[in-house]
Amino acid sequence: MADRPPASTGADPGAAPTLDRERPGRHRVLWLSTIAFTLMFAVWLMFGILGTPIREEFGLSEVQLSWIVAAAALNGSLWRLPAGMLADRWGGRVVLTGLLLLTAVPTYLVSQASSYAVLLVLAFLIGFAGNAFSAGIAWNSAWQPREHQGFALGLFGAGNVGASVTKFIGPPLIAGTAGATYFGVIDGGWRLVPVVYAALLVVMAAAVWFGTPRHDLKPGTGVPFARQVAPLRQMRVWRFSLYYVAVFGAYVALAAWLPVYYMDNFDVSLQTAALLTATYIFPASLLRPLGGSLSDRFGARRVMYWTFGAMLLTSGILMMPNGHITIVHADGRETEHLAYTLGLVPFVVLVFVLGCAMGVGKAAVFKHIPEYFPDNVGAVGGLVGMLGGLGGFALPPLFAYTKAWSGFPTSTFAVLFVLTVVCAVWMHWTVVHMLHRESPQLAGHLDHPTPEEAPA
């Protein structure tokens, strides 16, 4: 199956203007949506830090805790497709403001939770925060000029760094307010964190509503629903979605999973585990603009090759269990050979490199979308984001169950290794199949073909 963007697209009467001077509010849209997404992402993944004190207070098992994380990831994925489509139809200003306010209510109620069942329901509702991604992608695609969309969408996606916000403010806030009560109804400790976030969500909703252009761009206005979803029948959309499971779904899962992993396997404190996890989250988030720029310059597929190569190398090392081989000799003697142990420092370095690869790869995946589907970014981006987020829902329980089945904590990275292999093989098979079907000269035009090259 050939995989190339269209040489040209027809003008859409509802599409964004092409000249920067015709978009005086585009910078406000980009920066305010990015700040809002950063906050929403922090709320979405706050159980990565709150999970430890919650587990202690409610006496939860590791599997039960993983389902709290997974419930938030699930609802943060289910509505990405409609959120992106609605942002195209109604404008991102309305949709993003609504999501901010909608998330604030269950976020506050977490502070009042009294049972595991209630926490599970509230975690699911808080997942609405994750749907801000597809709304923001559609909104910024409408406002940003095409030649800079890779960087702009990468910058917006860098809001993933919100996953580290709770890692920094959570432990000291929890430790410093434990046992306190505020206004007679708000408890300190871990229960204070969701109250703070709920207030910030309301403030951010006001900033987005009043700080961005009142007359929004709505490229999906008047477009029939069937036309909006028509690209979803193409196999490449589903392939892009699988890539996003590897670079984003796995990122969400690991961001929530690593604090517990560090504490259980390296015997560090919650605060130290949070800081170490931040060394993974920061590059996996802040390098998205770089990934977008590299994709603008070299092509998204070439960047994906680099991404998958780095992920295979790092996860291949990280999945190796600590231990040694014991040989029992004929005389009954036992000798140990090939002892292997991965210490804390090399583990942190490898996870850092893994985060760098994911950060670049996330931007490269979304560079494909406005390139191939310039008039359907909301629907296609929503589906890709939805399936990527569903990966973040499925992976934490999978990490827990594979560890319980194998007995190896490093099975977490074996799951990631296998997923990356599938993505890399499918992508490479597509490229090779395309070159064999067409002609050798396509090798130099994988991302930017000439208009004369007919699609397969």
TrEMBL record:
Note the InterPro entries from the entry. Answer: MFS, MFS_dom, MFS_trans_sf, NO3_transporter
Q: Where are the transmembrane segments?
A: 29-51, 63-81, 93-110, 116-139, 151-170, 190-210, 242-262, 268-291, 303-320, 340-365, 377-401, 413-432
Question: Where does the Major facilitator superfamily (MFS) profile domain lie?
Answer: 28-435
Q: Does the keyword Membrane apply?
A: yes
Q: Which residues does UniProt assign to the signal peptide?
A: none
Record carries keyword Membrane: yes
A single Pfam family it belongs to is: MFS_1
**Taxonomically, which superkingdom?**
Bacteria
Membrane topology value: Multi-pass membrane protein
Show the PROSITE patterns listed in the entry: MFS (PS50850)
Renumbered to this chain, region (Disordered) spans 1-21
Keyword vocabulary terms for this entry: Membrane, Nitrate assimilation, Transmembrane, Transmembrane helix
Subcellular location, record wording: Cell membrane
**Family that this chain belongs to:** Belongs to the major facilitator superfamily. Nitrate/nitrite porter (TC 2.A.1.8) family.
Q: What is this protein called?
A: NarK/NasA family nitrate transporter
Classification lineage: Bacteria, Bacillati, Actinomycetota, Actinomycetes, Propionibacteriales
